[in-house]
Amino acid sequence: MYDVILHAFDWRYKDNEVNAQRIGDMGFGAVLFPPPLYSDENGQEWWQRYQPRDYRVIRSYLGRKADLKRAVDALKKCGVRAYADVVFNHMANENRRDRFNFPGEAVLQRYSSAEEGAGFKDDCLYGNLNEGLFSPDEFNKLGEIKNYNDPWEVEEGSLGGLPDLEFCDKVVQQQRECLSALNGLGFSGYRIDALKHLPVAHLEAVFETEGMQDKFVFGEVLTFNDNQEATFLWPVMKTTDFPCYDFVLQETLRKAFAPSGSMRELVDPAAFGQALPWYRAVTVAVTHDIPNNDGFRGVLLEPQDEYLAHVYLMGRDGGVPLVYSDNNQSAGRYPEDRDRWADAWQRHDIAAMIRFHNAVHGMPQRALYEADGFLVFARGDRGIVAINKTNKWQHPVIWTRGMRQGKYRCQIHGHEMNVTGDTFVFAIPPREAQMWLYSGD
């Protein structure tokens, strides 16, 4: 079963529907949809999707319930699973008198109005829209988070003014009903936004329930250094069964590709606590938070290093790779981002990496040559990955024992080579990578 996730970041639902066949043909296993719960339908900014107004309605700037259903069904027909990004930590930060009542009196009036009521009925996911979803009793009273290194405050406090939901029976009940209804729309998995802001007991009460056993549920615990990982990520890994974004490995990649770093760190990083266990990892070179938030841009890889990182993540054995593809959301503030990730999902190099990943999926990995500046490893007896971070050609001599003798084709560049004898001399261009697949005798 193909497993590579396409993060269709802030795509309109119709875009997923139109591109479903192409996404399936590329070899993606799943598409991660933006948060689908009701948010400001006129809010073009991507962050609006992370400010839900009501769990019971599917409507946003990206489309309505019928649009979402068509997109999920179109992907399913092409053998691609649909995952939804769910925001259960908080509700929308709205400037209104009843800001702790959701969806609020004005929205409830829209639900019942003669002019708009029928449309909201069509977009209803579950429940009774004649009554409110949450009242002030369902929100934490601590106020803003002041110390982001304090786990208790991070769980109980408000993030940037967003009303923080309490762990209580009413909230758990509504979140369970919401997931059940999303399951009914055809979703096969969920990304838990802001997981480190939710108590473990809350996560278990909502996501470890009947009807969720066969769903792929993974979390985002945003960390960028060893201290943050020790405080927030590793405790989640020890106390739950949820897979998470492998920000530990993303940090290891940043260190390895730095001028003073060593590619040897990438031979088996999980063995030294420099990556999550393979069966609990969603591996990433970049996520939507990194380019779109000022405070996180410092962990962006250089474009060529990001390309090399994707080769490593798609070439290695372990983890579920995620490919981030946007529509230039960050380019308005950062012109250098223009077209960096737009349509990344169908770039030639990404397509080649997915072909390689799918062809060797499940085959064991072993190092063929390791050095500070470059790395060569095998996947089973028919795949070879070579990555050179240096500015010079590298010509390692590798032992061919355990590899098939014959012709190999590089999926990225289209070149062919003939592997014969006990040893073979590789030629790896500067700042480049190769993904070789056995093609025959």
UniProtKB/TrEMBL annotation:
GO terms for molecular function: alpha-amylase activity; cation binding. Transmembrane segments: none annotated. It is an enzyme of class 3 (hydrolase). SUPFAM superfamilies: (Trans)glycosidases (SSF51445), Glycosyl hydrolase domain (SSF51011). Its EC number is 3.2.1.1. GO terms for biological process: carbohydrate metabolic process. Residues 3-357 form the Glycosyl hydrolase family 13 catalytic domain. It catalyses: Endohydrolysis of (1->4)-alpha-D-glucosidic linkages in polysaccharides containing three or more (1->4)-alpha-linked D-glucose units. CDD domains: AmyAc_bac1_AmyA (cd11315). Gene3D superfamilies: Glycosidases. It holds the Pfam family Alpha-amylase_C. Keywords: Carbohydrate metabolism, Glycosidase, Hydrolase. PANTHER family: ALPHA-AMYLASE. Belongs to the glycosyl hydrolase 13 family. This is Alpha-amylase. The lineage of its organism: Bacteria, Pseudomonadati, Thermodesulfobacteriota, Desulfuromonadia, Geobacterales.
